[in-house]
Fold:
Amino acid sequence: MAHDALRPAFAGLLDAHAPVRQLGSGFEFTEGPVWHPDGYLLFSDMPADVRRRWDKAGVREVLRPTNKGNGMTYDGALNLIVCEHATSSLVRIAPDGSRTVLASHFEGRELNSPNDVCVSCDGAIWFTDPWYGRMPGFGVERPRELGFQGVYRVPPGAAPGREPELVVDRYQFTMPNGLCFSPDERLLYVNDTEQANIRVFDVRDGRLHNGRVFASGIKDTLKPGVPDGMKCDHQGNLWVTAPGGLWVYAPDGTHIGNVAIPELAANFHWGGADWRTLFVCASTSLYAVDVKVGPRNEPFMRARSSPPSPARPAPSAAAPAAKGDGLALDPGRCALVIQDMQNDVVSDGGAFAASGAPAHCRAQNAVDNARRLAERCRALAIPVIHIHFVVPEGAHGLTLNAPLFEGVLDERAMVRGTWGAAPVAGLEPRPGDHVVEKMRMSGFEGTSLETVLKAEGRDTIIECGAWTNMSIEHTARTGADKGYLMIIPEDACSTMNADWHRAAIDYALQNVAAVTTTDQVLAALG
Structure:
């Protein structure tokens, strides 16, 4: 069935005739899909009180009863967070199956029925609380104790069972349902099924401000469907269930297109090996459609319960990432490393300016290309790691076993606290970035780089900076030996001159890395 492009931008998200595949059917009412990074989908069947799993082997039952479980997600430790209709509780289920009630009451009264849930990068859990779970079929019929339907937050580290924080005016929503963050988590979207609209709020310090209507009139008397499940892609477009399937809004609120689904859609989730498959829970069935864009990078998407594979990610037909070079990158596995982009190395007036490094850096446009990579990675929640070569006054502790290190001492270069050791303008670390210091060529040698990579769950390194034939090459060799996939955007790297650069790019690096360009990396990230 054909999808509906209302604006040209929609073509960049989904092919007009992308097939919608039915993965399973015969259910009562499907909801709450969530993709596990190990390669499978969980989803709820509320009226049947069953939780099911889909993977390449098909659909199977994993839990019965579920307390009429509805919306689900994972936290950063891959604990399953579930909205239970029958118990009016938000619960956490550990990988070993143990269950903890996170929230069940507000102001001493039982919650209505937690419905949908998302987790922010600081570990806070946000959820909606309409009263669908007190209706027959979707829950357990019983009187309501609260006189309103709210949106709540469980702060990071809150004691289990502690009352959650009400984050909206208690009478603002009639039936708050789906909710999601923008990619940078500066915005929270909440839809209202009864009001057929979406509100957006500014998020500051765990509080919501400046609430306003983002989209309204999400209804059609000729097509079944209401605002329910909702999520942002990594470009900031908002996808929401609606009449006929899913409606997609640009970040400015423009309705840009519709995804046609054969049955009434209740919820959806990105998944698949490259996070470019949209799994849609629609009434009696589970569907899948391949899209061209990935999801907002949520904390659990970077986690793995099994060791990461160092294998090179395969190109995907669903993600024509690198415009012809075959490169496909999963943002949830990547980290960006920017090496030695410091004043003494690449700035006029720096200690090594006479080497020709500043001129070659300009010729490569390396600073601006590295900056573009950093900005895109931050938007996708990809860790940005700055590696700076820094020595104390007198270079104490620096082993003078090579001309490079002798030059650092002779030129009094890279001294901590000096202009020369500072990052070049445009590549200063931003809040949330990592800074790693070194005193050798390789970024791994004697540094915390691998500790940071393991903590972030990353096995693919996009490496750029200076010097191509020294720091870049040595770090790439070490990374390859350690099992990391090394990606080198060569126009975001520079050294003393074009000959040395080409020698590294055309020969040494070809054996240990995927050599590409900044534009191709940006395309591969989506």
Notes: The radius of gyration is 25 Å.
